[in-house]
Write a structure and sequence with these properties.
By secondary structure, the chain is α+β, with helices and mostly antiparallel strands. The protein has twelve helices and eleven strands. Helix 2 crosses helix 10 and helix 6 packs parallel to helix 7.
């Protein structure tokens, strides 16, 4: 594509994708770039074959099978893909803010129904959301690691949220082990920052927390089961009586805590010891009724909330700020649900047609890379700054039109040059191509 200018959208995307160059061999990296352009161009990605028929074969002289081989290639490591994504994003954080900001990792899982039994890891799983009239769903379960990165915008700290990695649950490991593996693989890239790992009550269990505690800069803040046993921090270790001395204080009954009304919730805070970790943890309890204690929610943090450097504390109307409490900080976890919704609704997350476990994982992680690009590129390149903190779908639509325009003009120029060297027509086309409104 020698006729495409250095300042074109396609070359801008190539510069962004060059950060992933070390992961692939030369041919594989070319395949990676083509698939990224295809995902950004197509509004709905139903299969690799659809990408090939509707876009790839019109602009590249390549065969379809090379992309199936690409998804099954053993040298294509999704962990390295995740680390490369993190290295791109953390460069947006100024060095002067390293000691004053907090990065959030978010862990959760999502179910995806599939109408076919020939997929690897296909199974019947319990669906607590009950969207289809049944408590069970046939398909796949993905464990996801997402990230919230703080940026300075309008002299305030705002967070952008991106998916980092997806792993397909295949029962060879528990979801706790999959989540811990993903965190361990990216932790070295974040060792210079304060990191808070946020998760729901499924993941706040000892096997998961004990692996995270190996990293001194990472703390866990998440929901707890309402029946989690909590003990008083201070207690008399030696009473002078016969028998083994007490290991923990008396058990805490959350109903006896001091509650304060905050909006529609009653909220109480305390410190406690639990069976989940040897650390003293900070507990927040919320309920809608302190008489009957309905809708009780427990939240835990292995770090004092006052020692957390920063969090996404903007309210809906942005007229006030939220207090730095466990309950308010935990709300950042819900951003992963937004990522799930957007990728399933607008990014064809659910439309994968590859059958192997490795192919499925690589396919959905490539979607995550394209999604992340549409969020971060407006902060990297000034010409896209109007899309900062905007919907990634809106920026994707703009990129789709730009890619089509540039590839069309490139093909037209090559056709004219191969037929006859008509300088005046080429100059005219180059002039119109430089105009932003050309379609």
């Amino acid at each position: 594509m020698n006729s495409i200018g250095n300042n074109s959208i396609i070359n801008t995307l190539k510069k962004y994708l060059s950060a992933y160059n070390n992961i692939f061999y030369k041919r594989s990296f070319n395949n990676f770039q083509i698939i990224m352009f295809s995902i950004l161009y197509m509004q709905e990605v139903k299969s690799i074959k659809l990408l090939y028929d509707k876009f790839i074969k019109k602009h590249w002289d390549v065969c379809l099978n090379r992309f199936y081989y690409f998804l099954s290639e053993k040298n294509f490591n999704i962990t390295e893909l995740a680390v490369a994504t993190i290295n791109i994003v953390i460069k947006l954080i100024p060095d002067s803010l390293k000691d004053t900001i907090t990065i959030y990792l978010i862990v959760d899982d999502t179910l995806q129904s599939k109408f076919g039994t020939h997929f690897d890891c296909y199974d019947t799983m319990f669906d607590h959301t009950n969207k289809n009239g049944s408590n069970y769903l046939n398909g796949h379960c993905f464990v996801c690691l997402a990230m919230a990165i703080p940026l300075m915008y309008g002299n305030k700290i705002h967070y952008i949220k991106i998916p980092v990695q997806y792993k397909l649950y295949d029962k060879s490991k528990t979801k706790l082990e999959l989540a811990a593996d993903m965190v361990e693989s990216v932790a070295p890239a974040l060792n210079q920052y304060q990191v808070i790992l946020s998760c729901d009550s499924w993941y706040t269990k000892k096997p998961f927390i004990s692996k995270i505690e190996k990293f001194s800069n990472i703390n866990v803040l998440g929901a707890l089961r309402s029946d989690t046993v909590m003990y008083e921090v201070s207690y008399e270790k030696h009473t002078g009586k016969r028998g083994r001395p007490r290991k923990r204080g008396y058990r805490i009954n959350y109903k006896t805590l001091d509650y304060v009304k905050d909006g529609k919730y009653f909220i109480a805070h305390t410190q406690a010891k639990t069976n989940l970790t040897d650390k003293i943890v900070y507990i927040t309890v919320t309920t809608t009724d302190i008489e009957t204690f309905k809708s009780v929610r427990l939240y835990m943090s292995t770090i004092n909330p006052d020692n957390i450097n920063s969090f996404d504390n903007s309210t809906a109307n942005d007229s006030d700020t939220l207090d730095k409490t466990i309950y308010n900080i935990y709300k950042i976890r819900w951003n992963i649900e937004v990522i799930f919704y957007q990728q399933k609704t607008f990014w064809s997350f659910s439309n994968y047609m590859v059958r192997s476990k490795a192919g499925i994982e690589k396919y959905v992680n490539l979607l995550g890379v394209a999604y992340t690009m549409c969020i971060t590129l407006p902060f990297i390149n000034e010409q896209f700054s109007k899309y900062q903190f905007q919907s990634p779908q809106e920026f994707k639509y703009y990129l789709s039109e730009s890619i089509l325009k540039e590839l069309f003009i490139d093909k037209l120029l090559k056709t004219l040059q191969s037929a006859k060297n008509i300088i005046t027509i080429k100059d005219a086309i180059n002039y119109f191509a430089s105009q932003d409104e050309v379609s």
